[in-house]
Design goal:
By secondary structure, the protein is mainly α. The two termini are about 15 Å apart.
């Protein structure tokens, strides 16, 4: 039966890493669930204290992922429209453009990088901001997005390392 938990865990670790980048997939929670599944094996590798700490870190990272881009946008003079534009730009950059064959790069990498930036700019322009303010807010949104994504990637990698270390 261990093979079932390990197989599902591996799938969750991989999906968690993808979810750290792709919006709509909860990367850190999926990575955390992989760690929890390891506890169902014959020899559970983690202590309850470890799982509680990893769970709290996962919750913190997940909350910060929503707060940091908003903070970055507001810190650089942006509005809610800039944040919404950044989110829409990310979705368009990740899903729509690659499906249309428009984005150059592996898996729409340029869409992931530039989608939020362009979306925040367009959102600010739609809100009636001048170009200078819109660019500044777009930059803040972009920095916030990168910071949130970086936190999710780091957590998912750390959880993956613990998962595979726990196998041995």
């Amino acid at each position: 039966m261990d093979w079932l938990w390990i197989t599902i865990g591996i799938i969750l670790v991989i999906t968690g890493l993808l979810g750290a980048i792709i919006p709509g997939l909860p990367g850190p929670p999926l990575s955390f669930i992989a760690l929890v599944l390891m506890q169902f094996t014959k020899e559970p590798p983690f202590s309850a204290q470890f799982l509680v700490i990893m769970g709290l870190i996962m919750a913190g990272v997940s909350i910060l992922d929503y707060v940091v881009p908003v903070y970055g946008t507001k810190k650089f003079g942006g509005s809610k429209q800039g944040v919404r534009g950044s989110t829409i730009g990310l979705i368009v950059g990740v899903f729509v453009l690659p499906a249309l064959g428009i984005v150059i790069g592996p898996f729409g990498l340029l869409g992931i990088i530039f989608g939020p930036f362009i979306g925040a700019y367009l959102g600010e322009k739609a809100a009636g901001k001048d170009s200078s303010t819109a660019w500044k807010a777009a930059f803040g949104s972009f920095i916030g997005f990168l910071a949130g994504t970086f936190m999710k990637i780091v957590y998912s990698i750390v959880a993956g390392v613990y998962f595979f270390t726990g196998l041995f």
